[in-house]
Amino acid sequence: MTIEIDFFRQVAGRFATGITVVTTRSQGILAGLTVNAFCSVSLDPPLVLVCVDLTSNTLPYLRESGFFAINILTSEQEHLSRCFATSSVDRFEHFCHASFHTAATGSPIIDGSLAFLDIRVVAEYPGGDHVIFLGEVVAMGTDGHTAFAIEEDKLHATIFEGVDGNKSGIDKVPLAYYLGKYRHLACDYVKPSLAK
Fold it and tell me: What is the pTM of this model?
């Protein structure tokens, strides 16, 4: 018996995920792609990973720069997810018309995102038809608050408290993906997961 790719995709699609756009800048060129294969790995040091298809046009820019940002999208940014997931002039020549700022690495932080992580690549691993990037968080932010691992990195940032478009992040809802479709979470059902 062999594992069929389509059936594997159906089974894996039953795991609901958030949607991110991974962005980078290399030699003055902006690049980005939609990614749902993202997760946190370690708290100390703060590490995350993303998986990028070997055929992605953004892959060479990620490798050249050694940096990337993870932009966690809101339910109102579905258009950006769709744009960064397609091969189009808007994506490759106009960065999907997304406005952005920068934090520590110079990677684009998309305005209005639910949250962001600015990452320095620390390792790259083979992952079948994907590449697995392991990265250390050097800056992050949400709800108009930004934190830097190294205070000096603030000097080069264009994202500041209350300027990054995330001032009312508490009212925002994440963009979700389940069974091959975009989903929107219900705001009226909120229940704590663990007692503190």
Answer: 0.87
